[in-house]
Amino acid sequence: MTQVVKFGVIGCGLMGREFASTAARWLHLTDTKARPEIVAVCDLNPALTDWFDANVPTVSQVTDDYKALLANPEVEAVYCAVPHNLHAQMYPDILAAGKHLFGEKPFGIDAEANATIQPAISAHPELLVRCSSEMPFYPGAQKVINLARSGELGAIIEVEAAFLHSSDMNPNKAINWKRMVDVNGAYGCMGDLGMHVLHVPLRLGWRPSSVSAALVNRFHTRPDGKGNTVPCGTWDNATITGHVDDADGGFPLVLKTWRIAPGHSNTWSLRVLGTRKSAYFSTQNPRQWQWMDYDGGAQVWQVEDLGFQTLFPAITGAIFEFGFPDALQQMWAAFLDELAGGDAHGFHCVTPQEAADHHAVLSAALKAGTQRTVEPVTYTGL
Ligand SMILES: NC(=O)c1ccc[n+]([C@@H]2O[C@H](COP(=O)([O-])OP(=O)(O)OC[C@H]3O[C@@H](n4cnc5c(N)ncnc54)[C@H](O)[C@@H]3O)[C@@H](O)[C@H]2O)c1
């Protein structure tokens, strides 16, 4: 029988509501050990909690006080999707209340905040803690990952992981918390998108030992939505080049986190170039992945239409397209599977150690980018 896990949601904005949609259509998945049921919600904005109240019939607690939600004995697990400056305060409180935690990235506004979360995780080994990052659950991304894991790439020449979107293209877009250094963090676009580009490299053991970074702040002011112009100090784009050491002498790991990417709405891509095999996937072509075999002869990229061939099986026919809400549902399926004692079908969500490692890379990149230096990356074991 499918286990029911009762969830509280703290932060009912963009991502909180995506989770509600994911949970509501859990019947989409055909073979899961557990399913989420949202019983409690918390947000400061009553319009958002009203939305949950109206659309999620299982909700029995609505509050603007997250500690009241944590005191609810019915809540077994919490999805926390709040601005970055609140992670370090709320994540330890969630664990202290004895709830499993699915936290949003960047899992602390900076490395220091992340470090304050880690002791609470160590103090509760009985609780499952994972961080959000859904893009690697695209079937095409899984193909690239599996090829890399197979050991058939040969010596790696270069890896590029990119998240390119155009949310900051319009200079007249009003500022929001994601463009404010005190709420989003000094990382800027790297804090927003860094976990998305580092999840797969860190999972595959491609940890850069040093980084340089080109940081761009194109628009230094923005309208505040009330008729004024205010400073906007967050980085818009970052291109990080890391050096990954390996037995073949190492290779560059290029990470692009761009919020001003002409022509892109929300493109996540992964390209792995090896001496024997190469592979590429981009969400611009969500159904396809590409790969190239090289044995000394012709260099021919091959393209395969994959469709809906997912880690967790679903009712959708294998020929149809996979999209963003599907990636989110696959990610949640991985978390629920682990909660029920499974192995997430071989690809679990981001771990606390990976979150800490991603902070190590981003901190070094921020220093390298602002000082125009090459910086070593200092990883810390948990
Ligand atoms: N995985 C992804 O693809 C993805 C995409 C976007 C955002 N995120 C992450 O999700 C988190 C939230 O981002 P979002 O886009 O949903 O933001 P959002 O602004 O849409 O939602 C955040 C919500 O938190 C609420 N909030 C603020 N302070 C609160 C408090 N003290 N108690 C309760 N609620 C409070 C706000 O009222 C708001 O509704 C961030 O960490 C962000 O980086 C992840």
Commentary on this structure:
By secondary structure, this protein is α/β, with parallel strands linked by helices. It folds into two domains: 3-131, Rossmann fold (3-Layer(aba) Sandwich); 136-322 and 351-371, Dihydrodipicolinate Reductase, domain 2 (2-Layer Sandwich). It contains ten helices and 17 strands. It has helices spanning 14-24, 46-55, 66-70, 87-96, 111-122, 139-149, 181-184, 189-203, 324-339, 352-371, and strands at residues 3-10, 34-42, 61-63, 77-80, 100-103, 129-131, 156-165, 210-216, 221-223, 229-231, 237-244, 251-258, 266-274, 277-282, 288-293, 300-305, 375-376. A nine-stranded mixed sheet has the order 16-15-14-13-7-12-11-8-17. Strands 3-2-1-4-5-6 form a six-stranded parallel sheet, with helices on both faces. A two-stranded antiparallel sheet has the order 9-10. A hairpin with a 6-residue loop joins strand 11 and strand 12. The longest helix is centred in the last third of the chain and has 20 residues, at 352-371. It is globular. The two termini are 35 Å apart. The relative contact order is 0.16. The model has no long low-confidence stretch (mean pLDDT 97). Nicotinamide-adenine-dinucleotide binds next to helix 1. Nicotinamide-adenine-dinucleotide (NAD) binds at residues 10-15, 42-45, 48, 66, 81-84, 86, 104-105, 132, 134, 192.
